[in-house]
Design brief:
By secondary structure, the chain is α/β, with parallel strands linked by helices. It has 2 domains: about 300 residues, Zn peptidases (Aminopeptidase, 3-Layer(aba) Sandwich), CATH 3.40.630.10; about 140 residues, Roll (Aminopeptidase i, Domain 2). The strands form 5 sheets. It has a 9-stranded mixed beta sheet with strand order 1-2-3-13-4-14-20-16-18, with helices on both faces. A hairpin with a 2-residue loop joins strand 5 and strand 6. The relative contact order is 0.17. The model has no long low-confidence stretch (mean pLDDT about 95). The structure holds manganese (II) ion (MN) (2 copies). The site of one manganese (II) ion has 3 residues, from loops.
Length: about 475
């Protein structure tokens, strides 16, 4: 009988923590401090891009407009309307042989203010919202909320808003019915328990001191907004104000092995790929990092991955490399390799019935790779070729990185998608590759620090290949 036949033949998925020594464990825990710190400064897409720009410049990256010509070793970025960004390091190999792209998204589910949000009812002032992305509405009531974003005046003046994060700031909240009077509400289906139209945030209750004024609480709020930001009610029409949980990113568990934070879908992949890119020096294939916007609502719009802005950036790169010619852009994409860096659903033991244990991503077992996503028979999935899956496996195995190849839930239970298909449609080899998350899309999402580090290692190894 052959010894260790099991070890040789079985694909055994070990717990990541059992595979590391104390030194590596410290490294992993330390890395997550930087991650949590970044999350607290970058809670929205605009804030993420601002922080990423700062980090890029500190590491020698320059705006593509600052370059007349590009050559191997140059570090370059392009910012698309403050909400998405592309970074690249020019490789030594000809770009005709393709790019190595890692693409994540920096937008997360949230509540957006409506264009005419402000009203007063029964002595209380509210902002009306329209939710953004797939949320379970009941999760967004009775938690502390903050407001982030911009208000732009017709003359172009832009006011940045960030209120509810500082300890000295007030916070906001959405109220819910007391259980004593919720008999009817409690009979409803969970998805109908809270109406989208009722996700109104409570913002004030003191009336303006003027006997003759109407809507005195609303007037008082507008007066405060006018003094603080110099705006009038109509200026809210040209604003992008996002209502998000005021929670800080924190270590989770007695062993501090996990991260609890808002917006880890997909800032965990965005952060780890960005930091991996900053660690690169000389690369063979030109390395490209995409931080996209609007993924949570279908990647539409000019800051979403469906737009031509990315093609524009790559074309500009080809121009400044002085190699551009007809059809080169198509050729570059066809020979490119991409990791679509987006989170996976981690198997939740409390809700294990929605997952196939053989094919689920587990918390703490390393980076999770999805050959395909989609729903109802892989619909909408780009489904990576076996040859490319093998190529990616080789990179991971060579670099001794823990990985798991998984799918999102049991057949026909649901499904999802990422930006993978968009680049695959351009001709690139693409596979989904990200961190497994618990409570995805909830105001507070959970990841394992082991997996966060393993994402960083994966992205670094991919670009160094
Ligand atoms: Mn995502
Ligand atoms: Mn998502």
């Amino acid at each position: 009988m052959e010894e260790n036949l099991e070890k040789k033949l079985f694909n055994k998925k070990e717990d990541g923590w059992e595979t590391v020594d104390e030194i590596k464990k410290e490294k992993i825990l330390d890395f997550s401090k930087g991650y949590m710190d970044f999350l607290n400064r970058a809670k929205t897409e605009r804030e993420f891009i601002a922080e990423a720009t700062k980090m890029a410049r500190e590491n020698g990256y320059k705006d593509i407009a600052e370059f007349e010509k590009l050559q191997a070793g140059d570090k370059v970025y392009f910012i698309n309307r403050e909400k998405s960004m592309y970074l690249a390091i020019i490789g030594t190999e000809s770009v005709e042989n393709g790019l190595h792209i890692i693409g994540s998204h920096v937008d997360s589910p949230r509540l957006d203010l409506k264009p005419n949000p402000l009203y007063e009812d029964t002595g209380l002032a509210y902002f009306k919202t329209h939710y953004y992305g797939g949320i379970k509405k009941y999760q967004w009531t009775t938690i502390p909320l903050s407001i982030h974003g911009v208000i732009v005046k017709p003359n172009g003046d832009k006011i940045t808003v960030n209120i509810g994060e500082d300890e000295n700031d007030p916070i906001f909240t959405i109220t819910d019915l007391l259980p004593h009077l919720a008999q009817e509400q409690m009979e409803k289906k969970l998805k109908n328990g809270i109406n989208g139209e009722d996700l109104n945030i409570l913002i004030g209750s003191i009336p303006y001191q003027d006997k003759d004024a109407k809507d005195k609480v609303k007037l008082n709020i507008l007066n405060i907004l006018n003094q603080k930001y110099g705006i009038v009610e109509a200026d809210l029409q040209s604003s992008e104000l996002e209502i998000i949980p005021a929670f800080k990113a924190r270590s989770l568990g007695f062993d501090s092995s996990m991260v609890a934070a808002y917006g880890q879908d997909d800032k965990v992949c965005a952060y780890t790929s960005l930091v991996a890119m900053m660690s690169l020096e000389n690369v063979k294939n030109t390395a490209v990092c995409i931080l996209s916007d609007k993924e949570e609502i279908g990647s539409m719009g000019n800051t979403g991955m469906e737009s031509h802005m990315f093609d524009f950036f790559i074309s500009e790169m080809l121009n400044k490399l002085e190699v551009n010619k007809p059809n080169l852009l198509d050729r570059v994409f066809c020979f490119s390799k991409m990791l679509s860096a987006d989170v996976d659903a981690g198997l939740d033991p409390i809700y294990a019935s929605v997952s196939d244990r053989l094919n689920a991503g587990f918390i703490g077992k390393g980076i999770s790779i999805n050959k395909y996503t989609g729903a109802r028979g892989k619909s909408g999935a780009s489904d990576a070729n076996a040859e490319y899956v093998a190529w990616v496996r080789n990179v991971l195995e060579k670099n001794e990185i823990k990985y798991q190849i998984a799918e999102l839930g049991k057949v026909d239970v649901g499904g999802g998608g990422t930006i993978a298909y968009i680049l695959a449609n351009k001709g690139a080899d693409v596979i989904d590759c990200g961190v497994p998350v618990l409570s995805m899309h909830a105001p507070y999402e959970v990841t394992s620090k082991f997996d966060v580090y393993s994402a960083f290692e994966t992205y670094k190894a991919f670009w160094r290949e």
